[in-house]
Inverse folding.
C-alpha cells in the first residue's frame, strides 16, 4: 500500500469554505479536455446487442460555464417486462474513474444478451460526461455527484440519473455501481475537498487491489463474497491496512467494507434493491493494467447478476 502523503491545496484559505471566487479559480484549471466522451462512450453505444436499446434520458447544460451540453444515455432491455426483476448497472458517477465507464460498456457488448432473457437490464455507463472528459471527480460546480443521490442533491448528473432509474417500472433486485480508487484521490481530490469545505485533510492509504463497498443497511455478506471470489480470478484483491481497514473503514470480510449509502447520498443508495455493491479497482497498482481493471469490473457485474438471480 502506498503511504499517505499530506498535501495543502493551493486554492483557498485554510479553515475557510470556498466561495464563488475560489470555485471559479478551480474550474479555470480544469477545463482542458483530455479525452472525448463522444468518441469513447457515445460512439461505442451506437452498436448494441439485438435485445438492447439506447435511450437518451437527459442532457447536462453547462453553458453558464462556457462548456458544451452533454447528452446522457442509458441502455435498457428492448423488451421491458414489468413483471421481471430489474438489474441496474451504473458507471462514471465519478468521471475520472475510467474502468467504471469502460467496464459498463464492455458488459453491454459481452453479456447483455445473456442476462436480458432473465431480467430487465438498465445500464447507465457514464453519468458524469464532463468529469470523464476532464478526468475529474467533481462536476463544474465543484460538487461531487456521488454525494448528490438524494432529493436535495446539488449535482444535475445525479438528479437526472435518479429520474431515469425511477422512470423504469419494476422492482430493482440488484444495483452495482462501478468505481476506482486512484493515487489522485490523495494527490488531488481529497485535498481539494478539504480546501473547498474548510476542513483539514487526512489522506488514507490507497488499497492495492480490488475491493467492494457494501451498504451498511443491506450488507448481504454472501453476495459480496461471490463477487470477490469471481474478481479474484481476474485481478488481486486488496488486503486490509495495518489497522484492519480499507479507506478508513473496518473490514467486514476479505475485500469488503460497508458505507451507509443512503445517508451519504451515494449512487448505491438510490434504489431499494436487496443486493447492492460499489466496486473499487486500483488502476495505479504495479500489479495490474487498464485492461485487467476493465475485466475486473465486468467480472463483478456478471457475478453480481448471477448471484442475485439465483438467490
Amino acid at each position: 500500500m502506498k503511504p499517505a502523503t499530506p498535501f495543502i491545496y493551493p486554492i483557498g484559505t485554510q479553515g475557510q469554505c470556498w466561495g464563488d471566487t475560489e470555485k471559479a479559480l478551480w474550474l479555470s484549471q480544469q477545463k482542458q479536455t483530455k479525452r472525448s466522451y463522444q468518441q469513447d462512450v457515445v460512439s461505442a453505444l451506437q452498436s448494441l446487442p439485438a435485445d438492447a436499446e439506447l435511450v437518451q434520458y437527459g442532457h447536462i447544460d453547462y453553458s453558464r460555464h462556457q462548456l458544451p451540453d452533454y447528452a446522457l444515455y442509458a441502455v435498457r432491455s428492448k423488451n421491458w417486462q414489468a413483471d421481471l426483476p430489474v438489474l441496474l448497472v451504473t458507471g462514471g458517477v465519478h468521471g475520472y474513474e475510467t474502468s467504471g465507464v469502460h467496464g459498463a460498456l464492455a458488459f453491454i457488448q459481452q453479456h447483455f444478451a445473456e442476462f436480458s432473457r432473465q431480467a430487465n437490464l438498465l445500464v447507465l455507463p457514464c453519468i458524469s460526461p464532463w468529469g470523464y472528459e476532464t478526468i475529474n471527480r467533481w462536476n463544474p460546480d465543484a460538487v461531487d455527484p456521488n454525494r448528490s443521490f438524494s432529493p436535495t442533491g446539488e449535482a444535475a448528473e445525479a438528479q437526472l440519473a435518479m429520474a431515469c432509474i425511477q422512470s423504469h417500472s419494476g422492482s430493482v433486485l440488484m444495483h452495482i455501481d462501478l468505481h476506482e480508487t486512484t493515487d489522485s484521490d490523495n494527490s488531488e481530490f481529497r485535498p481539494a475537498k478539504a480546501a473547498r469545505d474548510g476542513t483539514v485533510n487526512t489522506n488514507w492509504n490507497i488499497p492495492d487491489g480490488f475491493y467492494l463497498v457494501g451498504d451498511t443497511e443491506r450488507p448481504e455478506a454472501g453476495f459480496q463474497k461471490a463477487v470477490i471470489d469471481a474478481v479474484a480470478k481476474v485481478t488481486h484483491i486488496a488486503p486490509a491496512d495495518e489497522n484492519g481497514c480499507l479507506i478508513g473503514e473496518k473490514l467486514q470480510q476479505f475485500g469488503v467494507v460497508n458505507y451507509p449509502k443512503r445517508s451519504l447520498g451515494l449512487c448505491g443508495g438510490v434504489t431499494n434493491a436487496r443486493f447492492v455493491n460499489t466496486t473499487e479497482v486500483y488502476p495505479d497498482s504495479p500489479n495490474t493494467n487498464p485492461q485487467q481493471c476493465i475485466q475486473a469490473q465486468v467480472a463483478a457485474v456478471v457475478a453480481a447478476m448471477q448471484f442475485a438471480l439465483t438467490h
Remarks:
- The first helix runs from residue 20 to 28.
- Strands lie at 52-61, 69-77, 86-91, 120-124, 172-180, 211-215, 245-246, 249-250, 256-259, 275-281.
- The longest strand covers residues 52-61.
- The domain at 35-310 is CATH 3.40.630.10 (Aminopeptidase).
